[in-house]
């Protein structure tokens, strides 16, 4: 994040400079950036999940997950509801685009904040890792073909619904085992449930994986996910252990 971005935010909202440490501003931007999927998940997939649309998703609106998210930020950063709104209004654009080109740096900084997720996120079902399918619409071409209409209405017709969420454990190399959350979605048209790593038709006996390559987190049991770096570490240890 460039200092000019912070300067613009402070210029627009002097309360930030007079009330908050620079460290809090960085944490806010990192947390928002890390939780983009969490924030944008409240929006239907047929709308653009750009930050201008999210501008209306602030405390006081009727969108359910955002107050939860803001409560997490308030609690984790130790700031008031009013300051959370001001930070959101001033820095949302910067935070939303922070990850571009800086994924590993953001990941390192957010992993250092794991205690915040454990202490303040867990009560709100906000975890450091929330595994979701990589799509929010049905991938079956035949299912897609059966829905007629404009692109917009077709997309609306293919929206996955009926989310099913549960707590899980993520095994990571940097942090060890930590609480996580997993959510799957269902397509009513073709009776397929979409999980974070794969999808399964209601009458199928096999899974279809999304990725040709190993996903970042591999679901090894219903409630357990293993980071690819842990898998690689095991493979290396097996090679050199004798
Ligand atoms: Zn479908």
Q: Count the domains.
A: 2
Class computed from helices, strands and strand pairing? alpha+beta
Judging from the principal axes of the Cα atoms, what is the shape? Answer: globular
Kindly provide the radius of gyration, computed on alpha-carbon positions and rounded to a whole number of angstroms. 20 Å
How would a crystallographer describe the biggest sheet?
8 strands, mixed
Helicity, in percent? Answer: 40-55%
Number of strands: 8
Ligand names? zinc ion
Strand content: 15-25%
Distance between the amino and carboxyl termini: 47 Å
SSE order: HHHHHHHHHEHHEEEEEEEH
Low-confidence stretches: 48-65
Mean pLDDT: 80
Q: Number of helical segments?
A: 12
Explain what you see:
- The protein is α+β, with helices and mostly antiparallel strands and 242 residues long.
- The chain has two domains: 1-126, no CATH class; 130-242, no CATH class.
- It is built from twelve helices and eight strands.
- Strands 1, 2, 3, 4, 5, 6, 7 and 8 form an eight-stranded mixed sheet that branches.
- A hairpin with a 2-residue loop joins strand 7 (217-221) and strand 8 (224-227).
- Helix 1 runs antiparallel to helix 7, helix 3 packs across helix 7 and helix 6 packs across helix 7 (81-96).
- Residues 128-242 form the CxC5 like cysteine cluster associated with KDZ domain.
- This is CxC5 like cysteine cluster associated with KDZ domain-containing protein.
- InterPro entries: CxC5.
